[in-house]
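hey
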Protein backbone atom coordinates (compact mmCIF):
# COMPACT_ATOMS: atom_id res chain seq x y z
CA UNK A 1 0.00 0.00 0.00
CA UNK A 2 1.41 3.40 -1.03
CA UNK A 3 1.01 6.56 1.02
CA UNK A 4 -0.11 9.68 -0.89
CA UNK A 5 2.04 12.80 -0.99
CA UNK A 6 -0.68 14.72 0.88
CA UNK A 7 -0.77 12.01 3.55
CA UNK A 8 3.02 12.19 3.95
CA UNK A 9 2.85 15.97 4.27
CA UNK A 10 0.09 15.80 6.87
CA UNK A 11 2.03 13.22 8.92
CA UNK A 12 5.21 15.32 8.60
CA UNK A 13 3.34 18.46 9.73
CA UNK A 14 1.83 16.67 12.75
CA UNK A 15 5.11 15.11 13.89
CA UNK A 16 6.97 18.40 13.32
CA UNK A 17 4.46 20.25 15.50
CA UNK A 18 5.16 17.66 18.21
CA UNK A 19 8.86 18.53 18.12
CA UNK A 20 10.27 15.71 15.95
CA UNK A 21 13.16 16.28 13.55
CA UNK A 22 13.20 15.55 9.82
CA UNK A 23 15.41 12.46 10.23
CA UNK A 24 13.08 11.01 12.89
CA UNK A 25 9.96 11.69 10.83
CA UNK A 26 11.41 10.14 7.68
CA UNK A 27 12.61 7.11 9.67
CA UNK A 28 9.07 6.53 10.97
CA UNK A 29 7.59 6.83 7.45
CA UNK A 30 10.28 4.50 6.09
CA UNK A 31 9.38 1.77 8.57
CA UNK A 32 5.72 1.73 7.53
CA UNK A 33 5.76 2.85 3.88
CA UNK A 34 9.24 2.02 2.51
CA UNK A 35 8.13 2.25 -1.13
CA UNK A 36 6.50 5.68 -1.00
CA UNK A 37 8.55 7.54 1.61
CA UNK A 38 9.98 10.84 0.28
CA UNK A 39 13.66 11.66 0.54
CA UNK A 40 15.14 13.35 3.61
CA UNK A 41 15.71 16.48 1.50
CA UNK A 42 12.00 16.58 0.60
CA UNK A 43 10.87 16.13 4.22
CA UNK A 44 13.28 18.89 5.30
CA UNK A 45 11.93 21.19 2.56
CA UNK A 46 8.36 20.59 3.74
CA UNK A 47 9.33 21.42 7.32
CA UNK A 48 11.00 24.67 6.20
CA UNK A 49 7.77 25.58 4.38
CA UNK A 50 5.68 24.79 7.47
CA UNK A 51 8.01 26.92 9.60
CA UNK A 52 7.52 29.77 7.12
CA UNK A 53 3.77 29.60 7.66
CA UNK A 54 2.67 27.43 4.74
CA UNK A 55 0.07 24.85 5.81
CA UNK A 56 -1.25 23.83 2.39
CA UNK A 57 -0.90 20.09 1.82
CA UNK A 58 -1.40 20.08 -1.96
CA UNK A 59 1.20 21.19 -4.51
CA UNK A 60 0.90 24.75 -5.78
CA UNK A 61 -0.67 25.09 -9.20
CA UNK A 62 1.99 25.59 -11.84
CA UNK A 63 1.23 27.44 -15.05
CA UNK A 64 3.34 26.88 -18.14
CA UNK A 65 3.32 26.03 -21.77
CA UNK A 66 0.72 23.48 -22.90
CA UNK A 67 2.20 20.03 -23.28
CA UNK A 68 2.72 18.97 -26.84
CA UNK A 69 4.90 15.89 -26.38
CA UNK A 70 2.79 14.16 -23.71
CA UNK A 71 -0.10 12.92 -25.84
CA UNK A 72 -2.29 9.87 -25.79
CA UNK A 73 -0.31 8.40 -28.68
CA UNK A 74 3.07 8.75 -26.92
CA UNK A 75 1.58 7.37 -23.72
CA UNK A 76 0.33 4.28 -25.58
CA UNK A 77 3.76 3.81 -27.22
CA UNK A 78 5.47 4.16 -23.84
CA UNK A 79 3.17 1.52 -22.35
CA UNK A 80 4.03 -0.88 -25.19
CA UNK A 81 7.79 -0.32 -24.74
CA UNK A 82 7.59 -0.91 -20.99
CA UNK A 83 5.42 -4.01 -21.41
CA UNK A 84 8.07 -5.44 -23.73
CA UNK A 85 10.95 -4.61 -21.37
CA UNK A 86 10.06 -3.48 -17.82
CA UNK A 87 13.73 -2.65 -17.11
CA UNK A 88 14.02 0.23 -19.63
CA UNK A 89 15.34 3.52 -18.30
CA UNK A 90 13.71 6.92 -18.64
CA UNK A 91 16.67 8.03 -20.77
CA UNK A 92 16.11 5.19 -23.21
CA UNK A 93 12.36 5.86 -23.23
CA UNK A 94 12.85 9.56 -24.01
CA UNK A 95 15.07 8.64 -26.99
CA UNK A 96 12.61 6.06 -28.30
CA UNK A 97 9.64 8.43 -28.00
CA UNK A 98 11.52 11.50 -29.22
CA UNK A 99 10.60 13.52 -26.11
CA UNK A 100 12.56 15.18 -23.32
CA UNK A 101 13.65 13.32 -20.21
CA UNK A 102 11.16 15.35 -18.17
CA UNK A 103 8.31 14.41 -20.51
CA UNK A 104 9.29 10.73 -20.31
CA UNK A 105 9.24 11.03 -16.51
CA UNK A 106 5.78 12.62 -16.66
CA UNK A 107 4.43 9.92 -18.99
CA UNK A 108 5.66 7.07 -16.80
CA UNK A 109 4.85 8.51 -13.37
CA UNK A 110 1.84 10.74 -13.99
CA UNK A 111 0.09 9.28 -17.04
CA UNK A 112 0.81 5.58 -16.51
CA UNK A 113 1.09 5.72 -12.72
CA UNK A 114 4.21 3.51 -12.63
CA UNK A 115 7.10 3.40 -10.19
CA UNK A 116 10.35 1.53 -10.71
CA UNK A 117 10.91 -0.91 -7.86
CA UNK A 118 13.71 -3.34 -7.15
CA UNK A 119 12.97 -7.04 -7.05
CA UNK A 120 12.48 -8.31 -3.51
CA UNK A 121 14.91 -10.89 -2.19
CA UNK A 122 13.23 -13.82 -0.46
CA UNK A 123 14.88 -16.56 1.64
CA UNK A 124 13.30 -19.47 -0.24
CA UNK A 125 10.88 -20.26 -3.05
CA UNK A 126 8.07 -21.65 -0.94
CA UNK A 127 5.90 -24.55 -2.08
CA UNK A 128 2.16 -24.56 -1.42
CA UNK A 129 2.72 -27.16 1.30
CA UNK A 130 5.29 -24.95 3.02
CA UNK A 131 2.99 -21.92 2.83
CA UNK A 132 0.19 -23.95 4.41
CA UNK A 133 2.53 -25.12 7.16
CA UNK A 134 3.58 -21.53 7.89
CA UNK A 135 -0.08 -20.55 8.25
CA UNK A 136 -0.90 -23.61 10.38
CA UNK A 137 1.93 -22.99 12.86
CA UNK A 138 1.16 -19.26 13.09
CA UNK A 139 -2.47 -20.02 13.86
CA UNK A 140 -1.39 -22.56 16.47
CA UNK A 141 0.89 -20.00 18.12
CA UNK A 142 -1.75 -17.26 18.15
CA UNK A 143 -4.34 -19.62 19.65
CA UNK A 144 -2.01 -20.78 22.43
CA UNK A 145 -0.64 -17.31 23.20
CA UNK A 146 -3.96 -15.49 23.42
CA UNK A 147 -4.38 -13.22 26.50
CA UNK A 148 -6.27 -16.02 28.27
CA UNK A 149 -4.49 -18.84 26.48
CA UNK A 150 -2.44 -21.64 28.04
CA UNK A 151 0.96 -20.11 27.19
CA UNK A 152 2.67 -16.77 27.77
CA UNK A 153 5.38 -15.00 25.79
CA UNK A 154 7.17 -14.25 29.06
CA UNK A 155 7.97 -17.99 29.34
CA UNK A 156 9.55 -18.18 25.86
CA UNK A 157 13.30 -18.41 25.31
CA UNK A 158 14.28 -17.99 21.66
CA UNK A 159 17.73 -18.27 20.10
CA UNK A 160 19.82 -19.04 17.06
CA UNK A 161 23.36 -19.12 15.69
CA UNK A 162 24.95 -16.20 13.87
CA UNK A 163 28.33 -15.60 12.24
CA UNK A 164 29.74 -12.26 13.40
CA UNK A 165 32.79 -10.83 11.61
CA UNK A 166 35.73 -9.14 13.26
CA UNK A 167 34.94 -6.26 10.91
CA UNK A 168 31.38 -5.63 9.72
CA UNK A 169 30.96 -3.22 6.81
CA UNK A 170 28.45 -0.45 7.38
CA UNK A 171 25.49 -0.27 5.03
CA UNK A 172 25.77 1.77 1.82
CA UNK A 173 23.70 4.67 3.14
CA UNK A 174 25.93 5.07 6.20
CA UNK A 175 29.06 5.21 4.02
CA UNK A 176 27.85 8.14 1.88
CA UNK A 177 29.88 11.37 2.30
CA UNK A 178 29.79 14.83 0.74
CA UNK A 179 32.58 15.33 -1.82
CA UNK A 180 33.45 17.79 -4.55
CA UNK A 181 33.83 16.67 -8.16
CA UNK A 182 37.62 16.64 -7.79
CA UNK A 183 37.74 14.56 -4.60
CA UNK A 184 38.12 10.77 -4.93
CA UNK A 185 35.55 8.50 -3.34
CA UNK A 186 36.67 6.81 -0.11
CA UNK A 187 37.29 3.09 -0.23
CA UNK A 188 35.56 0.63 2.09
CA UNK A 189 36.80 -2.91 2.54
CA UNK A 190 34.04 -5.35 1.65
CA UNK A 191 33.48 -8.43 3.78
CA UNK A 192 34.50 -11.54 1.93
CA UNK A 193 33.92 -15.25 2.33
CA UNK A 194 37.31 -15.60 4.00
CA UNK A 195 36.87 -12.68 6.41
CA UNK A 196 37.65 -13.49 10.05
CA UNK A 197 34.46 -14.36 11.86
CA UNK A 198 33.20 -16.47 14.74
CA UNK A 199 29.95 -18.32 15.35
CA UNK A 200 27.83 -16.95 18.20
CA UNK A 201 24.79 -18.65 19.71
CA UNK A 202 22.48 -16.20 21.45
CA UNK A 203 19.29 -16.86 23.40
CA UNK A 204 17.02 -14.21 24.89
CA UNK A 205 13.56 -13.79 26.38
CA UNK A 206 11.21 -10.86 26.89
CA UNK A 207 13.38 -9.56 29.76
CA UNK A 208 16.77 -9.62 28.03
CA UNK A 209 19.69 -11.87 27.00
CA UNK A 210 19.92 -15.35 28.53
CA UNK A 211 22.95 -16.95 26.88
CA UNK A 212 25.82 -15.80 24.65
CA UNK A 213 28.04 -18.68 23.55
CA UNK A 214 31.08 -18.30 21.30
CA UNK A 215 32.14 -21.37 19.33
CA UNK A 216 35.83 -22.33 19.37
CA UNK A 217 37.83 -21.28 16.32
CA UNK A 218 37.42 -23.34 13.13
CA UNK A 219 34.43 -25.25 14.46
CA UNK A 220 30.71 -25.19 13.88
CA UNK A 221 27.64 -26.14 15.88
CA UNK A 222 26.73 -29.79 16.43
CA UNK A 223 23.96 -31.44 18.43
CA UNK A 224 26.55 -32.63 20.95
CA UNK A 225 27.92 -29.13 21.49
CA UNK A 226 24.41 -27.67 21.52
CA UNK A 227 23.23 -29.97 24.32
CA UNK A 228 26.50 -29.94 26.27
CA UNK A 229 27.33 -26.23 26.14
CA UNK A 230 24.51 -24.02 24.87
CA UNK A 231 21.24 -25.32 26.29
CA UNK A 232 22.63 -25.83 29.83
CA UNK A 233 23.51 -22.11 29.88
CA UNK A 234 19.90 -21.28 28.99
CA UNK A 235 18.60 -23.52 31.78
CA UNK A 236 21.09 -22.10 34.25
CA UNK A 237 19.99 -18.55 33.47
CA UNK A 238 16.35 -19.58 33.85
CA UNK A 239 17.07 -21.13 37.24
CA UNK A 240 18.92 -18.04 38.50
CA UNK A 241 16.46 -15.44 37.19
CA UNK A 242 13.33 -17.31 38.28
CA UNK A 243 14.31 -19.79 41.02
CA UNK A 244 10.72 -20.39 42.11
CA UNK A 245 9.44 -21.07 38.61
CA UNK A 246 9.24 -24.67 37.49
CA UNK A 247 11.57 -25.65 34.66
CA UNK A 248 8.60 -27.15 32.80
CA UNK A 249 7.26 -23.61 32.34
CA UNK A 250 10.15 -22.79 30.00
CA UNK A 251 9.09 -22.72 26.33
CA UNK A 252 12.08 -23.11 24.01
CA UNK A 253 12.08 -21.80 20.45
CA UNK A 254 14.72 -22.28 17.78
CA UNK A 255 14.65 -22.83 14.01
CA UNK A 256 14.83 -26.10 12.11
CA UNK A 257 18.62 -26.33 11.73
CA UNK A 258 20.06 -29.83 11.91
CA UNK A 259 21.57 -29.53 15.44
CA UNK A 260 18.19 -28.28 16.70
CA UNK A 261 16.22 -31.17 15.22
CA UNK A 262 18.73 -33.91 16.01
CA UNK A 263 17.57 -36.84 18.14
CA UNK A 264 20.15 -35.97 20.79
CA UNK A 265 18.66 -32.47 21.18
CA UNK A 266 15.09 -33.76 21.29
CA UNK A 267 16.00 -36.33 23.95
CA UNK A 268 17.81 -33.69 26.04
CA UNK A 269 14.76 -31.40 26.03
CA UNK A 270 12.45 -34.28 26.95
CA UNK A 271 14.70 -35.30 29.84
CA UNK A 272 14.76 -31.72 31.13
CA UNK A 273 10.99 -31.37 30.79
CA UNK A 274 11.32 -28.45 28.34
CA UNK A 275 8.51 -27.74 25.87
CA UNK A 276 9.78 -27.14 22.33
CA UNK A 277 7.75 -24.69 20.26
CA UNK A 278 7.33 -25.42 16.53
CA UNK A 279 8.94 -23.19 13.91
CA UNK A 280 7.64 -22.91 10.33
CA UNK A 281 9.90 -24.13 7.48
CA UNK A 282 12.18 -21.57 5.80
CA UNK A 283 10.92 -18.76 8.00
CA UNK A 284 13.66 -16.34 9.15
CA UNK A 285 10.96 -13.65 8.93
CA UNK A 286 9.26 -15.38 11.88
CA UNK A 287 12.42 -15.86 13.98
CA UNK A 288 13.13 -12.96 16.41
CA UNK A 289 16.88 -13.44 16.16
CA UNK A 290 16.78 -13.06 12.38
CA UNK A 291 14.25 -10.25 11.98
CA UNK A 292 15.35 -8.18 14.99
CA UNK A 293 18.28 -9.09 17.23
CA UNK A 294 21.07 -10.06 14.81
CA UNK A 295 20.57 -7.09 12.44
CA UNK A 296 20.49 -4.78 15.49
CA UNK A 297 23.75 -6.15 16.91
CA UNK A 298 25.56 -6.12 13.55
CA UNK A 299 24.38 -2.58 12.92
CA UNK A 300 25.67 -1.47 16.32
CA UNK A 301 29.19 -2.85 15.75
CA UNK A 302 29.40 -1.99 12.04
CA UNK A 303 32.53 -0.06 11.13
CA UNK A 304 34.45 -1.23 14.21
CA UNK A 305 37.58 -3.34 13.80
CA UNK A 306 38.27 -6.13 16.30
CA UNK A 307 41.58 -7.99 16.52
CA UNK A 308 40.81 -10.40 19.36
CA UNK A 309 37.80 -12.62 19.91
CA UNK A 310 37.70 -11.47 23.54
CA UNK A 311 37.10 -7.87 22.41
CA UNK A 312 34.44 -8.91 19.90
CA UNK A 313 32.62 -11.10 22.42
CA UNK A 314 32.82 -8.37 25.11
CA UNK A 315 31.33 -5.79 22.73
CA UNK A 316 28.53 -8.13 21.61
CA UNK A 317 27.67 -8.83 25.26
CA UNK A 318 27.74 -5.13 26.05
CA UNK A 319 25.43 -4.29 23.15
CA UNK A 320 22.99 -7.03 24.15
CA UNK A 321 22.83 -5.83 27.75
CA UNK A 322 22.56 -2.23 26.60
CA UNK A 323 19.26 -2.86 24.85
CA UNK A 324 16.40 -1.70 27.11
CA UNK A 325 14.09 -4.40 28.46
CA UNK A 326 11.19 -2.61 26.79
CA UNK A 327 12.71 -3.32 23.36
CA UNK A 328 12.96 -7.03 24.15
CA UNK A 329 9.27 -7.01 25.12
CA UNK A 330 8.37 -5.07 21.98
CA UNK A 331 10.18 -7.69 19.89
CA UNK A 332 7.77 -10.36 21.13
CA UNK A 333 4.80 -8.14 20.29
CA UNK A 334 6.24 -7.64 16.79
CA UNK A 335 6.65 -11.39 16.56
CA UNK A 336 2.92 -11.82 17.18
CA UNK A 337 2.09 -9.21 14.53
CA UNK A 338 4.34 -10.97 12.04
CA UNK A 339 2.41 -14.18 12.58
CA UNK A 340 -0.82 -12.32 11.87
CA UNK A 341 0.69 -10.85 8.70
CA UNK A 342 1.86 -14.30 7.60
CA UNK A 343 -1.68 -15.64 7.93
CA UNK A 344 -3.08 -12.66 6.00
CA UNK A 345 -0.53 -13.28 3.24
CA UNK A 346 -1.52 -16.94 2.94
CA UNK A 347 1.91 -18.11 4.07
CA UNK A 348 3.82 -15.96 1.57
CA UNK A 349 6.73 -13.78 2.66
CA UNK A 350 5.39 -10.32 3.47
CA UNK A 351 6.67 -6.75 3.37
CA UNK A 352 6.32 -3.60 5.45
CA UNK A 353 7.57 -4.69 8.91
Amino acid sequence: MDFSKEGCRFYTFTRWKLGNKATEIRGELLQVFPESTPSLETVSRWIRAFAAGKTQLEDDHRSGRPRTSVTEATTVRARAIIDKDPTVTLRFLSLELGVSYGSAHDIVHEQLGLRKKCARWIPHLLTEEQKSERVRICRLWLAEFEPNGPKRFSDVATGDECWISFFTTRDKQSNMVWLSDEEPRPQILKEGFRSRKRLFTIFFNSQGPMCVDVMPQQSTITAQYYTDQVLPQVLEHQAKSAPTRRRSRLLLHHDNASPHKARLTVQFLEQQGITLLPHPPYSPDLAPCDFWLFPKIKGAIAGKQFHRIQDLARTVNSELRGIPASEYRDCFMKWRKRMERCIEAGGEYFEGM
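The chain has a mean pLDDT of 87. The domain at 5-51 is CATH 1.10.10 (Arc Repressor Mutant, subunit A).
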